Amino acid sequence: MNANLSIIIVSCNTQLLLQEALLSIEKSQDSLPKLVIVFDNGSKDGTEEMLKKFFPWVLYLRSETNLGFAKAVNSAAVHAQGDYLLLLNSDARLEADSIKQAIRWMETHKECAVCGAQLLNEDGTLQNSIANFPTLLTELGNKSLLRKLFPKKFPGKENKPKNPQAVESVIGAFFLVRKKIWDELGGLDERFFFFFEETDFCFRVLQKGYQVYYLPQVKVWHGQGKTAKTALVEARIEYWKSRYKYFKIHRPYPEFLILKVGLLLRLSFSLIFESLLYLLTLGRRNSERLRIGYKIALWHLKGMPENMGLSKG
After folding, report:
1. Whole-Å CA distances, 101 to 3, 21, 115, 219
2. Alpha carbon distance 262, 136 (integer Å)
3. Which residues form the signal peptide (predicted)?
4. How far is CA 186 from CA 41, 61, 73, in A?
5. What's the CA angle centered on 45, arms 42 and 51, to 5 degrees?
């Protein structure tokens, strides 16, 4: 069967979430021929057996080690067919008309190279689905405050957009891209192991003169970080790595230095504050933020080694 849409899901020990995502694809109310590709990034939770039993129609690809998100997606995209490529997180679930609505928009708006959906929490509340390109202001300031004070420059869930709008980038839990533009840009940048891959891709899309759109009419349920919560400390270190890489690639070098100094100062103040609160409450305060902060500080003190963070093996 020739497919006009290829859906790629990368999974690493997220069997139950993956099952829900695939069930939502099965229930999609559209007649679009689809190729669904699951790339297994070294899972050890019975993912392969589950797919063979319940979803034999899925093209299953596997790496024995964790290649990272970008490399896994690029490896899967080699097998993609059709005009469109959808990157779907394993902790996302489609509404019945999500694909139909998104493809309909893309078909009638040829300037749109990438579109994203309105992401929803389990209780139906809105998640942030739009992302600005990282700058010193966004990374050293308060993003929620920026969205409230400057909603046109920093659109977000607080503004509850009702109409499709051109944006800088969209959150990658549902990331629909024209296949010819994907090929033109060479897919995701594999220097990013986890986090910022889609932001980087959207940056390159706009550089080429194409558009990225947020579509509020397309609804997608999203676990928001459930895939990372199984290794929370390691995922946060990976986030810091990718943020630094993004600045090195796309921002002037002096900005990278200012970012690094600013983030380290903020981290230091946060550790002092959290430590004092922990002592004053005799250990009754939740120490999760403190534990993560100390691990990130330790990573810096060790010279930011690549072997700290999410497992590559």
Report:
1. 18, 18, 11, 9
2. 9
3. none
4. 21, 20, 12
5. 85
State how far Cα 39 lies from the chain centre.
16
pLDDT of residue 231: 74
If the chain, 313 residues long, is cut into consecutive pieces of 10 residues, what is the mean pLDDT of each piece? 84 94 94 94 93 96 94 97 96 96 95 97 93 96 92 87 93 97 97 96 98 97 72 91 97 97 96 90 80 95 91 61
Angle between helices 288-301 and 232-250 (to 10 degrees): 50
Any alpha helices (H) in the chain, and if so which ranges?
A: 15-26, 47-54, 69-77, 98-108, 136-140, 143-149, 179-185, 197-207, 226-229, 232-250, 253-280, 288-301
- In angstroms, the CA 275 to CA 270 distance is 8
Length of the chain counted residue by residue: 313
Fold designation for 5-227: Spore Coat Polysaccharide Biosynthesis Protein SpsA; Chain A (3.90.550)
| Pair 35, 3: CB distance under 8 Å | yes
Cβ burial of 107 (10 Å; 0-12, 13-18, 19+) is: exposed
Contact (Cβ atoms closer than 8 angstroms) between residue 91 and residue 17 = yes
Domain coordinates in residue numbering, the chain: 5-227, 231-301
pLDDT of res. 1: 45
Q: Is 255 exposed, middle or buried (0-12, 13-18, 19+ CB in 10 A)?
A: middle
Q: 253: how many CB neighbours lie within 10 A of its CB?
A: 9
CA distance 90 to 17: 6
